[in-house]
Amino acid sequence: MVDSNTERVGAVVLAAGSSSRMGSPKQMLRFRGESLLRRAAIAALEAGCRHVIVVTGAHAELSRRELEGLEVREVLNPLWETGMASSIRAGVEGLLGVAPDAVAAVLMLCDQPHVTAEVISGLVEAHRITESAAVASTYGGNFGVPALFSRTLFDELARLEGAAGAKQVIKRHAAEAHFLPFPGGEVDVDTPDDFLRLFAQGVEQGQA
């Protein structure tokens, strides 16, 4: 957990895609007893993010069921087929709609199963200490989400188009950004083989 400043940091969980490579809604896949979508939302809530926005699209009704009982706000993106940029824009606008005083937002995907409250809290704490406009995760020799973006970058996020993701904004501000190691961040679930490997790992650890 972080200090009370976290209450002015929101989270946006991107979960609008169709999971075409998976062949079934990956938002619903279960890992360690919970769906990937619910795990992501709970991580943001347990990190202390005051407002958690979940952007739905292709499988909105199923996603909505997975979020029952959680203090999150769903934002339906009717333009989800145009690419991730529209979901980022919908999420940022949704956050500002309920929290016009938000100082930053953590962008998350629902298919990174190793994202925890501690990972999110680390991003927020690094932002508090460094005052960097962007705080991104590093893994597998690369960087990306989950990542925190200060209010000064909200307009830039909203101007992304098509398949462009938040990584483009991180790249543009890399010189002044802060980067945090996230072991396991390179693990995402895009295909059935990805999920089988993840499940096998969970079985080996007795946590599937």
Task: Provide a descriptive summary of the structure in words.
This protein has 208 residues and is of the alpha/beta class. The protein has a single domain (4-203), classed as Spore Coat Polysaccharide Biosynthesis Protein SpsA, Chain A (Alpha-Beta Complex). Helix content is 34%, strand content 22%. It is built from 7 helices and 9 strands, in the order βββαβαβαβαββααβα. It has helices at 36-46, 60-66, 84-98, 117-130, 154-158, 167-172, 192-204; strands at 9-15, 30-31, 34-35, 52-56, 73-76, 104-109, 134-139, 142-150, 178-181. A 7-stranded mixed sheet has the order 5-4-1-6-8-7-9, sandwiched between helices. A two-stranded antiparallel sheet has the order 2-3. β7 and β8 (142-150) form a beta hairpin. The longest helix has 15 residues, at 84-98. It is globular, with a radius of gyration of 16 Å. The mean pLDDT is 90.
What keyword list fits this structure?
208 residues; alpha/beta; Spore Coat Polysaccharide Biosynthesis Protein SpsA, Chain A; seven-stranded mixed sheet; 7 helices; 9 strands; 34% helix
User: What is the domain tally?
Assistant: 1
Coarse structural class: alpha/beta
Kindly state the percentage of residues in helix. Answer: 25-40%
Instruction: Determine the N-to-C terminus distance.
Output: 26 Å
Q: Would you identify the CATH architecture?
A: Alpha-Beta Complex
Strand order of the largest sheet: 5-4-1-6-8-7-9
SSE string:
EEEHEHEHEHEEHHEH
Write down the overall geometry.
Answer: globular
In DSSP terms (H or I, runs of 4 or more residues), the helix count works out at: 7
Radius of gyration: 16 Å
CATH class (first level) name: Alpha Beta
The count of DSSP E runs of length 2 or more, i.e. the number of strands, is 9
Q: Calculate the mean pLDDT score and round it.
A: 90
Proportion of strand residues: 15-25%
CATH topology: Spore Coat Polysaccharide Biosynthesis Protein SpsA, Chain A
The unreliable regions are none
Largest sheet: 7 strands, mixed
Give the CATH H-level superfamily: Spore Coat Polysaccharide Biosynthesis Protein SpsA, Chain A
